[in-house]
Amino acid sequence: MAQTALVTSKGRFLFTSESVNEGHPDKLCDQVSDAILDACLAEDPNSKVACETCTKTGMVMIFGEISTNANVDYEKIIRETCRDIGYDDESKGLDYKTMKVVVAIEDQSPDIAQAVHLNKKIEEIGAGDQGHMFGYACDETPELMPLSHSLATSLGKRLTDVRKTGILPYIRPDGKTQVTVEYDNTIGEPVPVRVHTIVISTQHAPEVDNEQLRRDIIEHVIKPVVPERYLDANTIYHLNPSGRFVIGGPHGDAGLTGRKIIIDTYGGWGAHGGGAFSGKDSTKVDRSAAYAARWAAKSLVANGFCKRCLVQVSYSIGVAAPLSLFVDSYGTCASGYTDDQLLRIIVENFDFRPGVIQRDLRLKEPLFKELAVYGHFGRCPEKYAWEKPMDLSHCKKPEAGELLNPEFHWQASGREYPSLTALAPEVGACCVSTGAPLCSFFTGIGDS
Fold first, then answer.
1. Quick one: fold of 25-124?
2. Counting Cβ atoms within 10 Å, is residue 61 exposed (0-12), middle (13-18) or buried (19+)?
3. Is-contact 274 264, C-beta < 8 A?
4. pLDDT, tens digit, 9 for 90 and up, residues 194-226
């Protein structure tokens, strides 16, 4: 295809996000690391965990530093995690029953412990390391996530669903998805118009030909996930474009914790400080502060102060108070508001000290393994506190204009729902005002 075909009409642009399935080697490692973290937190909420995982043919290894009073059978957790993903035979790329398991875990450094948390009150707990973290939200979808990312994530989740439910039994655990969305930017903010390209590569049994796989993927994966209004005669499909994907999982590629940080967050939108999430307890601000920044950004958008928001926070190791806070609304503030005023709203309503984040977002609970695949954001707000926007109605200035309308109205099966909490996870649900799909909800992400 000529590159000139990638040039859209005036005022429009293409943006691409990708995702990977739970059987992808890197995601297998993320899930193992977070399964270890959950097991520690389940018995000892004060566990300090920094657990990395790597995998290659016939082998999974964990290594890092863990200080806990929990009695954890590391090997059992590793094997069970690989089993649950679907790696039960070497022909699929790994067999949980026969694979070699290596454990190389040591205690947390006492130097770090005394600097960060030892003998400290909640408000005094310091950051586990220096760094800068970002949170992002936009009004493209009801879960306030970018459409390109939500669609790529939902397609990946759907690939897993059709495999595990037997709809497409020849599908195997490894796989990747990618969605390019065409956006209209003529009014100064991106509005999703159509899906330009869908790429899906899925591991499969050797007896399946590519034509059957293509038909099945369109019928059972793409159509149930991508709203028809975004697909047209010019939408491009690359379905298993390599032609054959039998060798997969750790047999095909090595895997390592923390190599899918853009998939874990916003699909390339916003920004990323570089720190991974999985295998880290919440004293590690790479994780906890990123969740808090998402909470703040989502709250501003949900309350109508802006349509798109990026929040940055930074830390020094051992210091509780953040070093800096930054807010960018990309010029989408409600009338009468500025980014400086949005920053003040955040400062006056959100506490970014690590110990307080732990408490407010319930990060000492064992809730992380489920987050290790299909994204940490856009999840069920009743289960993950950073996804439940804070009520900021008290921050409205009497002299300012009306806030942007944050109240979405939903339609599913011909009915309308007044709010997200009233919506059952029905296939094909979308927002009446924007037509954006309820991606993470109708595919069941975060609701199990």
1. GMP Synthetase; Chain A, domain 3 (3.30.300)
2. middle
3. no
4. 999 999 999 999 999 999 999 999 999 999 999
One fold for 11-20+150-248 and 25-124: yes
Q: Is 233 a catalytic residue?
A: no
Helices 285-302 and 339-349 pack at an angle, to 10 degrees, of 120
Is 254 a catalytic site residue?
yes
Give residue 118's pLDDT: 64
Pick the catalytic residue: 172, 176, 196, 298?
A: 176
Active site residue 111: no
Q: Exposed/middle/buried for 100, CB within 10 Å: 0-12, 13-18, 19+?
A: exposed
Nearest to 142 by CA among 384, 448, 447, 442: 442
Domain ranges of the chain: 11-20+150-248, 25-124, 131-139+282-442
Q: Is 253 a catalytic residue?
A: yes
**Is 11-20+150-248 CATH 3.30.300.10?**
yes
To the query of whether residue 24 is one of the catalytic residues in this protein, the response is yes
Q: How confident is the model at residue 365 (pLDDT cuts 50, 70, 90)?
A: very high
Q: From the candidates 70, 115, 254, 400, which is the catalytic residue?
A: 254
Is 134 catalytic? The answer is no
Task: Give residue for tokens 């090997």.
Answer: 75
pLDDT score for 124: 87
From 18, 30, 34, 52, the catalytic residue: 52
Give yes or no: 402 in active site: no
Calpha distance 31→36 (Å, rounded): 9
Is 65 one of the annotated active-site residues of the chain? yes
We find that the CATH architecture of domain 131-139+282-442 is: 2-Layer Sandwich (3.30)
Residue 365 is a catalytic residue: no
394 catalytically annotated: no
**Confidence check: pLDDT of 186 > 90:** no
pTM exceeds 0.90, yes or no? no
